[in-house]
Amino acid sequence: MDSLRTMSMHLQFQSAPAAELRSDEAWLTEYMLRIWREDGPTPHGHSMDSDFICLQELYDGATGFPAGAASLAINGGQPVGDPAEAEVPLVLLTADAVRTAAEFLAAVSFEQLWATGGAAAHARYGPRWAEADVRRIFRQLHADLAEFYGVAAAADHVVVKAAWV
């Protein structure tokens, strides 16, 4: 995890009405880049540093949810363009997928996620980090992501995600 943390990876999320977005790689890249570089945080935006990788691993340990629900919030969605060729990988979630992600995030127990995957998440941070501190970080990441998706779902928005390295 330390090597991933030094890579300055970020996952940017932006929600919007579907009619405001184009499913065009060049247009969406410019849209997300403008928000990232110029506009800064927006009321319908969210971003995470490389911790999103471990958070997804925590979600992967969730049981009792529809197939694929655990992966929607971070890894899910339809790639826009060819991800292997893209300068900035983009993914688009439909409003239905956003609702499913929001439902999962609202229903999943962080305590249960931590009980099954917390030791691995803590180990990736290394021995300098106290378990309670890592747990607090991930609890907040989960709460923030759940809030973002809850607001997006309530507004019937789609979500576009961009991975920045």
From TrEMBL:
One Pfam entry name: DUF1877
Top-level taxonomy: Bacteria, Bacillati, Actinomycetota, Actinomycetes, Kitasatosporales
Protein's UniProt name: Uncharacterized protein DUF1877
